[in-house]
Amino acid sequence: MAGLLCGTKRKKQVSDLHEEGKNAINAPMLPIGTDIHPEDTLLEENAERIMLDPTSRENLKFKDLLKVLIDWINSELEEERIIVKDLEEDCYDGQVLQKLFEKLSGRKLNVAEVTQSEIGQKQKLQTVLEAVNELLRPHGWTIEWSVDSIHSKNLVAIVYLLVALAMHFQAPIRLPEHVSVQVVVVKKREGILQTALVTKELTSTTEMMLGRFERDAFDTLLDHAPDKLNVVKTSLITFVNKHLNKLNLEVTELESQFADGVYLVLLMGLLEDYFVPLYNFFLTPENFEQKVHNVAFAFELMQDGGLKKPKARPEDVVNLNLKSTLRVLYNLFTNYKNSE
């Protein structure tokens, strides 16, 4: 009888908790379409849980940010034969974050290589995040992540962490600007679940993000000496035409004529003295994706030629971002200015 009463009591507690979750789901402050499971609302008093609003998950700039971060991780961990496809599913156990931090920092962490249990995964995360926080906190970073948030596959926390690492280590990528998402915050106060919709800024402007680091010559040039910009552009136009003229091609506008990537690919072939097979790129690109493919392919050719991976993103060049285009061309100029 005691066991029966005990079982009945437990069932009632579970039922009450699910009812509590249901009430939270139906709370008037929740945005329409937000998908919250009852287990997401089983909170202790004064505890809170943050969930990404579904509409933000479909935001194109947010999706672009995720892709940039995934491509960056895969590039960094290529030698480890690690391939990340989904940040939530691939980063929560600490394995990828450990390898990424070790690669970026050059520091080996004292953790088990493979951990299957939840306790082991959280212990690894604890070690990794302690090392990350120890590195970032002195530089003024706000810690927007924790062991529990990462392990519970909180995508916003994971992205915050990766953006911070990318910026601190000056990753050769261009993060999309002004990426914000809305999150649903569920709190428990005096036994009552309260919900609110909060906006989280994941990235700001490129200038502000780069402001943490040493600004490059083009930042200074555009901000303080725009009158000299035409001198630089003229020099770069002279340089590229010296080579493109061999194919009876001529550039007059740097921003627009390199935006589809075709001239960049052809220029790399001329500078490195080889023919680029036409099947490797789109000679007459018809859409944004094909243009991005061309610019990205040109970046690969640059790396094959011994240059560092450009800090500009292919998307920035395609979108006629002047500074990004100048940085790419100036990098070629400094490396090939004496080439005939």
UniProtKB/TrEMBL annotation:
It is found in: Cytoplasm, Cytoskeleton; Cytoplasm, Myofibril, Sarcomere, Z line. GO terms for biological process: actin cytoskeleton organization; establishment or maintenance of cell polarity regulating cell shape; lamellipodium assembly; substrate adhesion-dependent cell spreading. One of its GO terms (molecular function) is actin binding. Keywords: Actin-binding, Cell adhesion, Cytoplasm, Cytoskeleton, Repeat. This is Beta-parvin isoform X2. Residues 63-170, 230-337 form the Calponin-homology (CH) domain. The lineage of its organism: Eukaryota, Metazoa, Chordata, Craniata, Vertebrata. Its main location: cytoplasm. Belongs to the parvin family. Pfam families: CH. One of its GO terms (cellular component) is actin cytoskeleton.
